[in-house]
Amino acid sequence: MQPSDGAVVRQVLAGDVEQYRLLVERYRAEFGRYAVAAVGDRDLAQDAMQEAFIRAFRSLGSCRNPDRFGAWFFRILTNQCRNAVARRRDVAGLDGVDPPGGERADAALERQELGARLEAALARLTPEQREAFVMKHVDGRSYEEMAELLGVGTDALKMRVHRARDALRATMGEQP
Amino acid sequence: MRRDRTFTEDAHRYLDGEPAGQLGAVERSAADRLVAETRAYAERLEPVGAALDEAVMAAVRRQPHAGRRGAWGWLLTPRPVRIRPVWIPALAAAAALALWLVPSRPDRRIPEVGSRAAAAPDTVYVRFELAAPQARSVSVAGSFNGWQVGALPLVRVADGLWATTVALPVGEHRYEFVIDGTRWVPDPTAHAQVDDGFGGQNSVIVVGPKGLVRS
Amino acid sequence: MSAIRGIIAAAVLAAAPALVAAQQGDVEARLQARGLPADLARDVAAVATDAAARGVPTGPLADKAVEGWAKQVPAPRILTAVRAFAGQLADARDAVRAGGLAEPSGDVVVAAAEAMGTGLGAGPVASVVRAAPNAAAAAPALSVTAALAAQGLGSEQAATIVVRALHSHRPMVQLLNLPSLARVMHSEGLAPGDIGRKMLEGGDDEGVEHASPTRGVRPPGVPPSGQRDTHRGPDN
Predict the structure, then answer these.
(1) Which pLDDT score, from 0 to 100, does residue B120 have?
(2) According to the model, what pLDDT value does residue C5 have?
(3) Same domain for C126 and C92?
(4) Would you list which residues of chain C are within 8 Å, Cβ to Cβ, of chain A?
(5) Is B69 a residue whose pLDDT tops 60?
(6) Using omega within 30 degrees of 0 as the cis cutoff, is the peptide bond preceding B133 cis?
């Protein structure tokens, strides 16, 4: 039987650093798709997630409820993902790759490939809307679960998801 | 904020998996299409791979003992430079937090950190930094200088890092960096990003008299 | 300047086209000086005139056009954006006036428009304006509200924080530090909702104790450790 988050955290704080791997495996599995969908680039998402795990390790002593490491870690991860998205706008352009934002999204919208248009349209959402939409429709979480992870009420989360859907619908148009 | 083609309340309930009234054909079709697109996207999605685990552990083994510093000890510890965090000055946040947490009473005299009798200044030096290794020139343009490109140039300070320090009045400022005179990019370290009304974003900072803390 | 002339322009629009033309000329001249082509400058100035008739300050509209031109946005899109902005400023102005400022300056109206852009309703905007000790404080109060909301605190929560702070006579300098504070807390892993709660409570849990970097030296008024926050939701 797998040890609880709290047990692992306490062991790590007591000095058994290698135990941290259990948390890394657990939450990479749990949030790895979310990170890629929130950032829109697998490599950058990987970097963000790595940075998040390192920061979580460094400030592990300030995790007030070790049994709920996941939710605490999730917030650190979300912050890193947002930073990655913001930086991406700069880096992508400099390498001579497609400019960020408008033009790239329009090009992808021309393609008929199912799922590709959504990927492009996601980039146009605000960070909160994108995160909420991904949690709801890609991860398939309930609003209650989302509320626990984000520390935001379900009403506010519903509004974010609804706005995200409306924005996606508008961006992707009515074509089949 | 786009107002054309939004889902109805019922469509949202349907998509939330809650009991909903009858949906019209168009609404139903649009909702199902969104579901299909999302499913297709999710199926193609490759999550972060297991190679991450060892990379994290390798970094973690090099760290000092986990959680030794408290949550806010972070503030004062120098960290390896990647995107360099900008603390102007480093104690500003700790001081601001301490002052904020004291309930304000009119007769209470709260000594300012590094106490001088003078009133708080109403212009503050703010440092702008951007990692742009392939740029030939970088400037900052915004509400504080009439959006003039090139009027506030940054200089190269380290490998790929550009910076400048500008005296700004306290309060809110909106701006972006301009790379090579034509490419406008936001500042990922700013407090917030807002819609600029032209399909892009402006970075927003709110400068207090003690300076600015960004990520 | 422009708000008062706007009122006069509205009142005598039919009777004194020369005055209207003068104001429109100001905006037009300013835009041309910044390099906008003549017809775009003229079109934007016309939008500004209409807006002024509704009491909307024209300075921010000219600023928006200048911004668009600097960003090399195509002229038609600049015009569309300026029109949309004028609408937002009109709504914002109504909200600010409802808060008790009869002739708000351009920066208050812009700050209110930004706050409303983050989702804040007219009612809370009016509350923030009403809570400000004087007209000069309204703009920074609204800017802080908008920034906190954009940082994820939620517009209602941000407004409540600012209103309460103003009601307890916290100096504006402290309010201006709040977005920086929120940023620090966020990078430490606190969710925006928790950040907002901490700001409202003034921080009364053990986060405060860990927060002090100067162990043993406590700022005056901070309570000693051992006080636990007993109301804890499903967070860390």
Answers:
(1) 44
(2) 55
(3) no
(4) 152, 154, 186-194, 206-207, 210, 233-236
(5) no
(6) no
Domain match, C84 and C168 both: no
Say whether residue C75 is in contact with chain B using an 8 A CB cutoff: no
Name the minimum distance, in Å, from the CA of B181 to any CA of chain C.
10
Is A71 an interface residue toward C (CB < 8 Å)? yes
- Burial status of residue B4 (CB atoms within 10 A of its CB: 0-12, 13-18, 19 or more): exposed
Q: Which domains does chain A have, with CATH numbers?
A: 1-100 (1.10.1740.10), 101-176 (1.10.10.10)
Considering the domain architecture, whether residues C150 and C85 belong to the same structural domain is answered as no
Is A6 in the C-facing interface, judged by CB distances under 8 Å? no
ipTM comes to: 0.85
Note whether A101 contacts C: Cβ–Cβ < 8 A: no
Please tell me whether residues C78 and C151 are part of one structural domain.
no
Give the pLDDT score at C156.
Answer: 86
Q: Give the pLDDT confidence of B77-117 residue by residue, as tens digits.
A: 333 322 223 333 434 445 555 555 554 444 333 333 333 33
Of the candidates C70, C73, C151, the beta carbon closest to that of B192 is on C151
Q: How far is Cα B202 from Cα C63, in angstroms, rounded to an integer?
A: 14
Among A31, A118, A142, A174, the strongest candidate for a mutation testing the B interface, having the largest count of B CBs within 10 A, is A118
Residue B56 touches chain A, beta carbons under 8 Å? yes
Counting the structural domains of chain C, the total is 2
For residue C71, the enclosing domain spans 1-98
Q: What is the mean pLDDT of chain A?
A: 84
Give partners of B (≥3 CB pairs < 8 A): A, C
Neighbours of chain C (3+ CB pairs under 8 A): A, B
C87 and C125 in a common domain: no
For C103-155, what is each residue's pLDDT tens digit? 898 889 999 999 898 888 999 999 999 999 888 899 999 999 999 998 888 88
In this structure, what are the phi and psi dihedrals at residue B31, rounded to the nearest 5 degrees?
-65, -45
The model carries a pTM of 0.51
Q: C90 and C47 in one domain?
A: yes
Distances (CA, A) of A124 to A165, A169, C55, C180: 12, 12, 34, 26
Place of tokens 């162990």: C215
Does any domain span residue C52? yes
Arithmetic mean of pLDDT over chain C: 78
To the nearest whole angstrom, how far is the Cα of A153 from the nearest Cα of chain B?
16
The answer to the question of residue C215 being in a domain is no
Per the CB < 8 A criterion, the answer to whether B194 and C133 are in contact is no
- Between CA C90 and CA C109 the distance in angstroms is 8
Average the pLDDT over A18-30 and give the result: 93
Q: What pLDDT is stored for residue B12 in this prediction? A: 94
Q: Which residues neighbour C190 within 8 Å (Cβ) at sequence distance 6 or greater?
A: A75, C198
Order of all β-strands in the sheet with B155-158:
B123-131, B161-169, B155-158
Which chain C residues have a beta carbon less than 8 Å from that of A79? 186-187, 189
Low-confidence winner among A17-21, B167-171, C59-63 (lowest mean pLDDT): B167-171
CB within 8 Å: A75 and C234: no
The angle formed by the CA atoms of residues C211, C217 and C219, to the nearest 5 degrees, is 70
A153 touching C (Cβ < 8 Å): yes
Residue of A nearest to B47 (CA): A33
